[in-house]
Design goal:
The protein has 298 residues and is an alpha/beta fold. 38% of the residues lie in helices and 21% in strands.
Length: 298
């Protein structure tokens, strides 16, 4: 069985898929990600070995990616920081096939484009952090320094919490999985095995007043990100992805309600129908790994 292989490398797991010429997933493998530069390479090699022969390999990885060199740094959750790690060169030497390296949100955006057929799309990844990928008129926009789509680090509240980037009151401090968990379960508390986003939305649906307050503040933050992206680049569609997107329709409904509330006093915003542009990534499709496979093929 041959095809192109895509790897979605995360802090805790690496998901690999084997994709055919039409972009259909033929097989997939998940392995725990080994920390550190050498560990990332070994994990990638292991996943590829499980999937079998592929004509090419593409991978998405968090951090700052030099696409031309196929190198990454500042992937701190993977234990990769400081110096550039030449992932492409090391993997090509081990695997014997062409390898392409890209930022994880960008490959997820390419996957969302492939699955939807929409060539003018913003993918808003709501995970531990908050970031966006931009495909405009069919072209992936990385930016002059690779910082395009770093919507999570747009400050919105001068009195807000200090962000990990060093600024204060960034969108990520309100509209991310980490922010949601900290607001709903302070001081490191847990809600059994239920992910914080699911626990929060379930409690809000059951009428818990504090849960409703936390959910609505989070949804308003995501709506702020959507509105900012739409006013900046005016995409046809905004796709919500990342770990929090597993909420599905309840997330879309909450963000859409927040967008409509924000537009209630603005005929200009109302005319843009931002709520009508919202979609959620299909829960059963590994969009980042699919996008990585397509990137490697190209």
């Amino acid at each position: 069985m041959t095809g192109s292989i895509g790897l979605d490398i995360g802090a805790t797991k690496t998901l690999g898929v084997l994709v055919d010429a039409e972009g259909r997933v033929l097989d997939q493998v998940r392995e725990a990600t080994e920390q550190g530069a050498d560990g990332v390479v070994r994990t990638a090699e292991l996943v590829v070995a499980h999937l079998g022969a592929g004509s090419s390999v593409g991978l998405g990885i968090p951090g700052l990616v030099d696409v031309e060199r196929g190198a990454v740094k500042h992937a701190v959750n993977l234990g990769v920081d400081g110096e550039w790690v030449p992932l492409r060169d090391e993997l090509e030497a081990r695997l014997g096939v062409p390898v392409a390296v890209e930022n994880d949100v960008n490959v997820a955006t390419l996957g969302a484009v492939a699955l939807s057929g929409i060539r003018d799309l913003v993918y808003l990844s709501i995970g531990t952090g908050l970031a966006a990928g931009l495909v405009l008129d069919g072209t992936l926009r990385r930016g002059a320094t690779g910082a395009a789509g770093e919507i999570g680090h747009v400050p919105i509240d001068p009195l807000g919490a200090v962000c990990q980037c060093g600024q204060r009151g960034c969108l990520e401090t309100v509209a991310s999985g980490r922010a949601l968990a900290e607001a709903w379960l302070p001081d490191g508390a847990t809600d059994g095995d239920t992910p914080p986003a699911q626990a929060l939305f379930a409690a809000a649906a059951a009428g818990d007043a504090r849960a409703i307050e936390v959910r609505d503040r989070f949804a308003a933050g995501v709506a702020d990100a959507v509105r900012t992206l739409c006013l900046a680049v005016d995409p046809a569609t905004i796709v919500l992805g990342g770990g929090v997107s597993h909420l599905g329709a309840p997330l879309v409904d909450a963000v859409s309600d927040a967008l409509r509330a924000q537009a209630a006093s603005s005929p200009f915003l109302a005319s843009l129908d931002l709520a009508g542009r919202i979609r959620v990534v299909p829960d059963d499709q590994p969009v980042a790994a699919i996008g990585a496979a397509l990137l490697g093929r190209s």
